Amino acid sequence: TNAQIVNGCQTTVTLREAFEQGELSDDVKVLVRIYSTDNPNLVDKITLTTNNQNRITDRDLRENDPVQRDIERIMLDKFGYYYERKNRQHRALRGEKKRKVIPSPKAAQAYLAIVRGKPSNARGYLAAVWSDFYGEIFQNASVPDLVLAYKILSYCQAEARSSRLQKLDEVELETRVYGSNHVARMVGFELVKDQWGNSNIKDIEQILNDRNLEALLQSAYAKSVRICLEIRKSHRDDDPIPALYYKNSKSQKAL
Question: pTM (2 decimals)?
Fold first, then answer.
């Protein structure tokens, strides 16, 4: 039960094709190694050490962690969102359900930028959420934190995309686009005042369930852009390239 094949894709595909074409002999033998275990940590180690052909990411190794499964369950049961702990896990969903998919990398990035106050790290070292920052994120995050942070960052990134079509001042445009993580950090502060975590779950849930959440985000976004814009103006002469500026710690500390 629950068998999984590791590093055997080409073999199994070839066997199936031969079978369907009537060319699979009854005496074919395939060398296999079988592990029987209830230890999820051993499963991860086997996956990493036996797969030399396909790129296994840190996210792949974390997708079956108990904390990831708990987040998936609670997010759906309590908030109606589909937490995508595996790549393309919910690709079959359509319509309204598809709009309620929250990919784990985006949730982790949002939490790191907004709740942990590290927007530059979240922008410049996204892959590190599964290694260097994994414990900092997932050992501390409540599910409401993850959902609200995700909604804030998604709103700011949507505003960044629409800003490209507007006639904005050059500095404001780069602040909205390249500094979307930093703006999101400020929006989170405006809404929650950094009172995140299990001790403040009820207040976070109240914000999530607020019918005027879109208006709250819009108001906080406008104020946050102004703040981030002033910071950017003060550093622009020394750091003229916005893509680099918003990846370094200087912009993060100033915020």
Answer: 0.78
